[in-house]
Amino acid sequence: MTDRVTIVPALSYADPNAAVAFLEAAFGFEPGLCITDGDGRVQHAELTYGGGRIMLGPMGWADWAKSPQAVSGANTQSVHVDVDDVDAHCRRARAAGADILAEPQNQFYGHRTYRARDREGHVWTFAQMVREVSPAEMEAATGLKVRERP
């Protein structure tokens, strides 16, 4: 077995060059593979964070690939990233111009999370585990049935 990442989100941007710069500055992603055309426009980029990876590229390579900016801000998915210090991460994102949608807050399932929107409207959730929580504790906090799947 390898340590390869097996699920890799791919996001579309109207301006993928600006997106790469923003994701590195605001969210701490590290550069990886980058394929550009003759004008230097990003056609495919891969960025890493910890043991994870995302891909991004321009809108238009497929008719269904759109930035939220092109569809009135709609998102059909969001990216969740585990970080070591969610409060410091939020401060960095805010300083770089991310729109903070939800401030860092402890959640019933034992994580501290915040939510941010990047410059083209993609929604990101960043989380840090702050304590182990049993299914019984989650049920008591929410009134919902919680079970672990085999």
Structure description:
The protein is α/β, with parallel strands linked by helices and 150 residues long. It has helices at 16-27, 86-95, 135-142, and strands at 10-13, 30-36, 42-49, 52-58, 79-82, 99-106, 111-117, 123-129. The strands form two sheets. A four-stranded mixed sheet has the order 1-4-3-2, with helices on one face. Strands 5-8-7-6 form a four-stranded mixed sheet, with helices on one face. A hairpin with a 4-residue loop joins strand 6 and strand 7. The longest helix is centred in the N-terminal third of the chain and has 12 residues, at 16-27. The radius of gyration is 17 Å and the shape is elongated. It starts with 9 loop residues before the first strand and ends in an 8-residue tail after the last helix.
Number of E strands: 8
The largest sheet, given as strand count, sense and whether it forms a barrel, is: 4 strands, mixed
Lateral strand order in the biggest sheet:
1-4-3-2
Using the alpha-carbon principal axes, give the shape: elongated
Distance between the amino and carboxyl termini: 20 Å
Name the beta content range. 25-35%
Helix share bin: 10-25%
What's the average pLDDT?
A: 93
Please give the count of helices: 3
Using only C-alpha atoms, the radius of gyration works out to 17 Å
Q: What are the secondary-structure elements, in order, as H or E?
A: EHEEEEHEEEH
Class from helix and strand fractions: alpha/beta
Low-confidence stretches: none
